[in-house]
Amino acid sequence: MKLITAIIQPDKLDEVREALIRAEITRITVSRCSGHGRRQDEELYRGQVHIPNLQNKVRLDIAVNDAFVDVTIDTILAAARHGAGQIGDGKIFITHLEECIRIRTGERGGGAI
Fold this sequence. Notes:
Elements: E1 2-8, H1 13-22, E2 29-35, E3 43-45, E4 48-50, E5 55-64, H2 69-80, E6 90-96
Antiparallel strand pairs: 1-5, 1-6, 2-5, 3-4
Helix pairs in contact: 1-2
């Protein structure tokens, strides 16, 4: 089992969500967040380095069984990219998911996803 975390642009949320549903990935968690990556447009203002404000982003958390990892990643990559790709399109992180437990039934493992 893996936990896929994607940080994407807010204007791509509907497109990514619809693409995931078409790929039969229907269980996702969406959170609003803010941050910035490695930006090159720092400004010098009155002798001080000014770092740009945080940018609004959307965070998707998707727990999947190993068979769905590549499908999920490919779907997010295709739907979240602006054209040929732009700075700030986002990132995808994949972490090992040690255990998943369904609270309602106590079911554990991949079946609980």
